[in-house]
Amino acid sequence: MERLLVLVRHGQSDWNLKNLFTGWKDPDLTEQGVREATSAGRRLKALGLTFDIAFTSVLTRAQHTNSLILGEIGQPDLPTIRDQALNERDYGDLSGLNKDDARARWGEEQVHIWRRSYDIAPPGGESLKDTAARVLPYYITEILPRVLRGERVLVAAHGNSLRALVMVLDRLTPATIPSMELATGVPLVYRLKADSTVESKEVLEG
């Protein structure tokens, strides 16, 4: 039985390009982001991978990435479940701010703590720990059972919602996960064992 789980962070968004905190705000992909998502689909197609179901967030940039990937692999009508449990981390009062402006306002060290600590949230927002607290139960109840039944699952989501999953899959700790970056549009291909641990992981870089 092939227990396939593929995670893809959305391609570059308009606010990524403008160096803005995005969170639950809803900009679309840039032209580069479209190319990244399309390229991700081509790399998956080159491996002969197809899927039984896809999951994504309720945010446009993740949904657009998902659609572009499915178009490239010839499955444009694949059933897709959208849920805000997979949304990006909510940056609260930082959302929409230029990252340099935020550093000027609160200081380099404070902004770094908000961005990179595991359990310290920005004002009005979520920490990575908070993000994991909504992503992981959803993964355990909705996504993982399908993978363990042998369904091939694609998840197109966000840097922080996917980091929460990678933390569990790769057995990372709260001390090490904050420094881990997920590149936009780079599929992570996991194959799981029957006990839900990782049998193999492949990073499909361009």
Automatic annotation (TrEMBL):
It catalyses: (2R)-2-phosphoglycerate = (2R)-3-phosphoglycerate. The active site is at H10 (tele-phosphohistidine intermediate), E88 (proton donor/acceptor). Pathway: Carbohydrate degradation; glycolysis; pyruvate from D-glyceraldehyde 3-phosphate: step 3/5. The record marks H158 as: Transition state stabilizer. One of its GO terms (biological process) is glycolytic process. One of its GO terms (molecular function) is phosphoglycerate mutase activity. InterPro entries: His_Pase_superF_clade-1, His_PPase_superfam, PG/BPGM_mutase_AS, Phosphogly_mut1. Keywords: Gluconeogenesis, Glycolysis, Isomerase. It comes from the Bacteria. Substrate binds at residues 9-16, 22-23, 61, 88-91, 99, 115-116, 159-160. SMART domains: PGAM. Its EC number is 5.4.2.11. CDD domains: HP_PGM_like (cd07067). Homodimer. Belongs to the phosphoglycerate mutase family. BPG-dependent PGAM subfamily. NCBIfam families: pgm_1, PRK01295.1. Catalyzes the interconversion of 2-phosphoglycerate and 3-phosphoglycerate. This is 2,3-bisphosphoglycerate-dependent phosphoglycerate mutase. It comes from Chelatococcus asaccharovorans.
